[in-house]
């Protein structure tokens, strides 16, 4: 039986020295990090399509932010309702060769409208400190990639059991939001904000493994799956941005009070 190591991202090139003692020097193995052999070839191809589509949606959202901030499509409330309509429309379409281009158009429109809807928040963050947006973007990328790799490398689909917990957490957040409409409590707002951040991370794990499981069962609608991850990523980015913006404003208030 071959001897394995408990650290899959590191490769012991020489496990033993010439004197027979174990060699404790480990080398980082990039091939192991990018090894998705635990996934079926068709699932790997499906995931490539999903993340390519996700990248395209992210670019469309960036375009929407630019167009809105440039004053050409500065209708955030209208864009919010438009994104809901296109999302429902996309999920109601059967994905096949004839509807593929329509699905591409719908996810692109959804991402574009989402960017327009987010532009006021991003514009506010830029006016406070432009570095906040860059930091939020980097943190979102790092967290999203780490949680995605964690979900993909886990052979047993244990994160699928998070569905019930995430659903309960989402219901609690909705209840807190309704309560805060009347209470206007900063404590409830903070609880909702940080709870939502944890739930957003959980949904990245859950949706990634859900996509893999659906692909194993023959569901190859990579446009719809990309939209799921896009929603998770946007939710994560917004909450990180609000937290950074809130912390920056708190620091400014403390410095002004001195």
From TrEMBL:
- Report the membrane topology from the UniProt record: Multi-pass membrane protein
Q: Which UniProt keywords apply?
A: Membrane, Transmembrane, Transmembrane helix
Which Pfam families does the record cross-reference, listed alphabetically?
Answer: Bax1-I
Transmembrane residues, as ranges?
50-69, 75-92, 104-126, 132-152, 159-181, 187-206, 226-245
InterPro entries from the entry?
Answer: Bax_inhibitor_1-related
This protein's GO cellular component annotations are: membrane
Q: Which CDD domains match?
A: BI-1
Where is this chain's protein located in or outside the cell?
Membrane
PANTHER family per UniProt? BAX INHIBITOR 1, BAX INHIBITOR-RELATED
Similarity section: Belongs to the BI1 family.
Q: Would you tell me the protein name for this molecule? A: Bax inhibitor 1
């Amino acid at each position: 039986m071959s001897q394995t190591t408990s650290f899959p991202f590191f490769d012991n090139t020489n496990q033993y020295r010439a004197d027979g003692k174990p060699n404790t020097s480990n080398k980082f193995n990039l091939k192991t990090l990018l090894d998705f052999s635990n996934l079926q070839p068709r699932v790997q191809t499906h995931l490539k399509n999903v993340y390519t589509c996700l990248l395209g949606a992210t670019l469309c959202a960036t375009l929407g932010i630019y167009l809105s901030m440039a004053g050409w499509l500065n209708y955030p409330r209208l864009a919010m309702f438009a994104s809901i309509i296109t999302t429902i429309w996309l999920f109601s379409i059967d994905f096949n060769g004839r509807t593929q281009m329509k699905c591409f158009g719908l996810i692109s429109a959804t991402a574009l409208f989402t960017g327009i809807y987010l532009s006021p928040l991003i514009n506010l963050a830029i006016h406070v400190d432009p570095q906040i947006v860059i930091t939020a973007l980097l943190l979102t990328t790092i967290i999203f990639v780490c949680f995605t790799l964690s979900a993909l490398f886990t052979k047993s689909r244990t994160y699928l059991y998070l569905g019930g917990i995430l659903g309960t957490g989402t219901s609690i957040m909705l209840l807190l939001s309704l309560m805060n409409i009347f209470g206007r409590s900063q404590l409830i707002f903070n609880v909702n904000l940080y709870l939502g951040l944890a739930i957003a991370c959980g949904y990245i794990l859950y949706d990634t493994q859900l996509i893999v499981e659906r692909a194993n069962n023959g569901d190859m609608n990579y446009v719809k799956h990309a939209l799921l991850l896009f929603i998770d990523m946007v939710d994560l980015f917004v909450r990180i941005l609000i937290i950074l913006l809130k912390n920056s404003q708190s620091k400014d208030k403390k410095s002004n009070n001195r």
